[in-house]
Amino acid sequence: MKQLRRLGLLAPAFALLPVAAEAHNFAKGTIFPQIIEGIGASLNSPSGLLTLIPLGIMASVWQTEGILRLMPPLAAGLVAGIFLALFGSPAYVVPSLSVGIICALLAVIARPWPFAPLAGLAAVAGVLVNMVTLEGHGFGELQFGIYIGIVLGAAAIPLISAAVARGALQKVPAFWMRLAWRIIASWSAAIALMYMTFQLKAIVGG
After folding, report:
1. Among 30, 106, 111, 195, which is least packed, fewest CB within 10 Å?
2. Strand, coil or helix: what is 27?
3. Alpha-carbon distance 199 to 188, whole Å?
4. For the residues of 149-206, what is the DSSP string, one character each?
5. CA distance 185 to 109
6. What residue ranges of the chain have pLDDT lower than 70?
7. What pLDDT, in 10s, does the model give residues 54-74?
């Protein structure tokens, strides 16, 4: 009898287990794993990181809220890159990295640049980054959630680098801090240039 009573008390708990497990189990094919997969594709792209991290640094060196002004053209470029990815090839990593190097150099020079050329640079960065990430995949070949994730992941990269740079510059508004971020930008340009060299060797050798 005691065992039956214990089983009777435990039965409701066991009855709830399948419901709880099912509530947190995202089935394969739902949009959430697709979005995560797309975000991972953007964050695992070395050329994307080396293009978009300098963009974020440049934006914060340019203006305190500079990245917010550059996000609309960047987002438009990222979306356009999805549709243009069909024409992508491994060679597009070179112009993509070149845009990152230009952004880094603009951060190093640190001038009050006009908005228009920086907006154009952000848009081009978005197009090229997604053309490289999706290389050769025409729109519709992948699940829709993956495209959403790729755009979100790519957009997060400059937002994070800009937020870190802006936070540091606001917390320590000294010349040496601005100089430090300009040096970091120069390092990112050097890394991008080295990575571009390896990619060029692979493209030419392939």
Report:
1. 111
2. coil
3. 16
4. HHHHHHHHHHHHHHHHHHHHHHHS-SHHHHHHHHHHHHHHHHHHHHHHHHHHHHHHH-
5. 10
6. 1-29, 206
7. 999 999 999 989 999 999 999
